[in-house]
Amino acid sequence: MDFDYSPDQLQFKTELREFLIAEVPEDKQAVFGLATEAQYRFGREINLKLAARRWLAVGFPEEYGGDGKSLIEQGILAEELGYRLVPEAGTVGLNVVLPTIMAFGSSEQKETYLSPIAKSQVEYCQAFSEPNIGSDRAPSGLRAERDVGDYVLNGTQTFTGNAFHADYMFLLASTESHPEKNWGVSLFVIDTKTPGINLQPNPLINGEMSTHTSFDNVRLPGSCLIGVENRGREYTMTNPHNAISELGRYGAVRRVFDDFTDFCNDSAPDGGQPLAEHPLVRHQLAQRRLGMETWKLLSWQGVSIEGHLSGNGTEVAWACLFGSQERLRFAEMAMEVLGPYATLRNGSHLVPLLGNIEGIHRETLNRQSSGTADIQRDNIAQMGLGMPRLGY
Questions:
Q1: CA dist., res. 47 & res. 24, Å (int)
Q2: Do 165 and 289 reside in the same domain of the chain?
């Protein structure tokens, strides 16, 4: 496949990079494993500036607040935001909610929800994980029962990221009494201030704050249902912007890898010869550079194929699986090379690379945002190889 950008895409990439270099100084950049309110607010500020240029939703139609470009431009944006370590804000709305409603929502839902996302006026969270299921998106203990024209929700969700900032929640709930495995779930959008929703803090090892979310007779109007009943899992699995999210993750880790390479070439923690002078370190850097390039190509392959609507999500699962493993390999290699200095966190005067190595290593222990490795393998087996779902 052809990975070359068109002249217009190259121009967009150049203008975007210049904008981010000017607007995101080093002291405002995200640090892995360190999630602060100030960082989140700065991320929202950058999003508002991007939205003012119609760059935040650059790949979406102009009628929804975008710039009418393609998924490629949206991928360029995600990779550059990651590489420039712009603190995350609005990613669920932009990469999950907007494309899903655009593809499967009603005219009224598109009119209500899409433009505010593209303009960074609202924030979303995603409630797909359960205490006894995880991120499998299978039929859940969270039930949505019909009551005349409404739905009544009862049950729990866990690891709901960004819920305390969110105006709306995107969630999956069972809508069949006896659903088949993996089906019978429906997709809803709900105002987080709806009576009956209770958010309990649930801190994650990577520094972020999620919530344990309970629903006690939460009443939703029928207009909150996205698409038709019992097809929620299909909607979430076939979202082409899943590949965009992976590019953002790649960009951020690649930035730290490049900084680490420069660090190895220029200095050593103990003031001795540069680390890259050691043959073993050079060998390890070369191996991880190959891994980074593979991760990038897999991510862009997913964007390209999904952008042509010729994929079934398998390519994205490949990229997510390889990426989660590659960032762990990089973090372990870097910690081995740096020794005890790599265990220091941001704030220590001896910490190299702002503590990002330790932060990435901690983040690799918290990978449910894209689904665990086993779930990605299951997706590849089912969607790519046509194998049946077995065992659970």
A1: 12
A2: no
